[in-house]
Here is the input.
Amino acid sequence: MSRFFSGKYARLTPYTPGEQPQDRQYIKLNTNESPFPPSPMAQRLARLEAGELQLYSDPACKKLVSAAAEAFGVRPDEIMFTNGSDDILNFAVMAFCDADHPAVFPDVTYGLYSVLCAVNGVPYEEIPLAEDFTLRVSDYCGVGKTVFLANPNAPTGIPLPRREIEKILSSNPDSVVVVDEAYVDFGGESCLGLIGTYKNLLVTRTFSKSRSLAGGRLGFGVGDRELIRDLNTLRYSTNPYNINRMTMMAGVGALADEKYFRACTEEIIRVRQETAAEMEKLGFEMTPSAANFLFVRHPKFGGAELYALLRDRGILVRHFETPRLKDYNRISVGSREDMRALLNALRELTGERA
Here is the structure.
């Protein structure tokens, strides 16, 4: 770091995104992107908006907010859009966490939570998951801290039933509970229907996964209007034009094209289930994923070893070099062709035949 870098960040370890190598053509199963392009309607509306890029985007995102409020059955003042869901997670840490309101989340979850706390100088606690990577709800009941839960969890893909999250919400009435639903469309149970019941609930979502807009950077949060007002206070104080015009209209198009959305998510679920069944035949062990990825290990290989062997064969998966996760790899669900290539490579490596 330079001598000008603030000392308050001296110990900061930044979040490590999934690699985006340029040295060769890879089958990318490492960043949980959709194998499908954005919906035709999303593409068309984004192209039309390109001709207006000399003008600032609408900071209130009126068209997008109206479309989302109708799609998700909430009021317009209960929703706020951001530059990807990482953005609203950062706003949530800024708004609802401090020395008197520390954060709490599992020890195995989305790695950005701890980084956002460190950047904002917020104390946090990591509660270990059980040995099978399930979350013990009792660990979060009455904890009296700002709770962050990815549901389904990442990188395990394990979902938590809504009734269990309600226990956490009702037992922490004076603390905000943030439920990160980045992967909920692939088999999880959403908490959006609880917004009117619990004023301490903030649900965050993204268009990156099930809406095929990872490169567009579009996320949002839904909660009681007072929570949303708090978050907008910070957004308007930092970057009020955080959603560009093309992304905003791509979001409107993605929400309007419900048939395309359903077809893509249903296909990803089918391919996930089929791939999991074939991998089990090859001796792989895995968690019960309700996301667009599989979290797997094999008794013959260390996680880093399998990652390297697949990379050599032109297939990228995600490996986490931490004590609890070092034997595992997270594998995104790609197209049928992508997963066929993966399975062929795994059969070769394990010495099994189709």
Notes: The domain at 7-36+259-350 is CATH 3.90.1150.10 (Aspartate Aminotransferase, domain 1). Residues 258-281 form the longest helix (24 residues). The chain has two domains: 7-36+259-350, 40-257. Residues 104 and 125 are 5 Å apart (CA to CA).
